[in-house]
Amino acid sequence: MYDFEIERAVGEVERRRAKKVFVQAPDGLKQFLADFVSRLSKVCEVYVSINPCYGGCDLEDDKAAMIGADMVIHIGHEKFIEGAEKVQTIYLPAPHMVDVKDLASLAASELKKRGFTKVGVLANLQHVVHVGEFVRALEAAGIVPVVDRQTAGLVLGCRTGGAKRIEGEVDAFLFIGGGEFHPLGVAMDVEKEVFIADPYRNEVRGTVEMVKKTLSQRWWAIMEAAKSKRFGVIVVTKPGQFSIKSAEKIAAGIRAAGREAYQLVGDEVSPERFASFPFIEAFIVTGCPRIATDAYQDPNRPVLNEAEAWKMLEIIKPGNR
């Protein structure tokens, strides 16, 4: 189902003369690793992380170094920040090898019915290999496909530049992939409608209602946070998410508005971690911007990302109260 490029991985291990290898993969791909690990174990000692892995920004070099690994194989993501790795690392995208011809035709038909004439084509890393199939289907339906040259249509984590650069050229976007993480990120960053071509469900669906719900939740969180007196400003220590300068500036802004700011540090951000600080009324996460928008809808204590925190600070800054 997924191509883990095992021979490439073995070749890289042998070329680099790695003796002990640390493997990272997102939870959705771990279940398919048996053959990969068995083959790799013939040329080196293999350790597989049981921790969640959210992207190329979520490196576990410290854990790899702790067990004495001299190489990391990061599956399902691409390099996120140049030079972030402390242990030599290779990235295996693990494309989803599935026939999408019928899905591409269905997507083209649906978009044509809606009257779109120019459509931007996007995909996550597992499905960017299928962009060409969807381009051909759109062209066959009389629709002009537009693909960002710089990214070849790839949406990587919270980076949606591949959509924003071509927004002015299209009437709508078609995203290839499962789930809602990537297409919601695109839909929140552009003003054109985004449709999802889902290879797992073999369906095409829109994002309008999802975006309306999310925007409503985010503005609620901003306005509720503006009422708070005590804030927890969280510095995330994942290598690709570490942003202490931003956290310090936000904490200073909170204090300048006459509120209290507690500076917190952590690797994993979750409601369980928040529970240890009952005196804090609102949290600001300066790591991945999607942590706040996707995972933590606490009805009692709002959680903001960095961009939302700056909007909130505009509301509470001296002179606006």
TrEMBL record:
It catalyses: L-histidyl-[translation elongation factor 2] + S-adenosyl-L-methionine = 2-[(3S)-amino-3-carboxypropyl]-L-histidyl-[translation elongation factor 2] + S-methyl-5'-thioadenosine + H(+). Its EC number is 2.5.1.108. GO terms for molecular function: 2-(3-amino-3-carboxypropyl)histidine synthase activity; 4 iron, 4 sulfur cluster binding; metal ion binding. Pathway: Protein modification; peptidyl-diphthamide biosynthesis. InterPro entries: DPH1/DPH2, DPH1/DPH2_1, DPH1/DPH2_2, DPH1/DPH2_3, DPH1/DPH2_euk_archaea, Dph2_arc. Keywords: 4Fe-4S, Iron, Iron-sulfur, Metal-binding, S-adenosyl-L-methionine, Transferase. GO terms for biological process: protein histidyl modification to diphthamide. It comes from the Archaea. Its cofactor is [4Fe-4S] cluster. Pfam families: Diphthamide_syn (PF01866). It is an enzyme of class 2 (transferase). NCBIfam families: arCOG04112, diphth2_R. Catalyzes the first step of diphthamide biosynthesis, i.e. the transfer of the 3-amino-3-carboxypropyl group from S-adenosyl-L-methionine (SAM) to the C2 position of the imidazole ring of the target histidine residue in translation elongation factor 2 (EF-2). Belongs to the DPH1/DPH2 family. This is 2-(3-amino-3-carboxypropyl)histidine synthase. It comes from Methanosuratincola subterraneus.
